[in-house]
Amino acid sequence: YTKGKIHLAMGDTVMAERELLRSLEGGGENKETCLVLSDINMAKQRYELAGQYLNEILKTTYDTEVLYSKGAILNRVNMPDSAKGVFVEILRHDEKYAPAYYQLGQYYYGKNNLDSANWYAEEALKIAPKFIDPMLLQARILDRRRQYQNAVEMYESILALEPANITAAGELRSLKGKILYLQRLQEERRAR
Question: Which helix (H) or strand (E) holds 122?
Fold first, then answer.
């Protein structure tokens, strides 16, 4: 296990993976080894294999972070309904786990169920008021609802908390462009 971590720290994922697999075969640190192997495989976009390592951990113990990673993998392989089930399961065990609320908000946003998406984002923010992801989700919901000024204010509050947030800055720029375009269209209609 230690050799694998050393190779990983040096940026050699091939040797790290090889050493970690040897460690597993030799009965080494199962949970930690599986976590690192899962991370390596996630980085290499080998999601099925990453999920298998997480499932190995979940066979013997309940772990919120591991279960959350499993849900994230299910989202990446376009299995949102299965991911939703994982996030609901997390909240059954820990109703104060803000990332699971956020993920459920994302799920409902993807289904265009904006009221539910907003509710889950709100729940996440009640637990973690400075959690940027649910704030971004709320800004997107406001945009989709055509509440443009409120969306601009939400993006600006995100950027006040995290000025280097590229996602918020890009979406705000796009939203302001949309607002200008709509204003020009409205002016053209009035001019006719």
Answer: helix 114-127
Checking if the pLDDT of 87 tops 90, the result is: yes
Residue type, 142: L
User: Is pLDDT of 1 > 70?
Assistant: no
- Taking the C-alpha atoms of residue 129 and residue 138, their distance in angstroms, rounded to an integer, is 13
Separation of alpha carbons 109 and 93, rounded Å: 24
The answer on pLDDT for 132 being more than 70 is yes
- For residue 14, what pLDDT band results from cuts at 50, 70 and 90? confident
Helix orientation angle between 132-144 and 114-127, rounded to the nearest 10 degrees: 150
Q: Determine the Cα–Cα distance for residues 176 and 151; give it in Å rounded to an integer.
A: 10
CB burial of residue 83 (10 Å; 0-12, 13-18, 19+): buried
What's at 54, amino acid-wise? L
- Return the amino acid letter for 37: L
Tell me the pTM.
0.85
Structure tokens at 87: 């996030």
Half-sphere exposure of 31 (CA within 13 A, CB side): 9
3-state DSSP assignment of residue 26: coil
Interatomic CA distance for residues 57 and 67, integer angstroms: 9
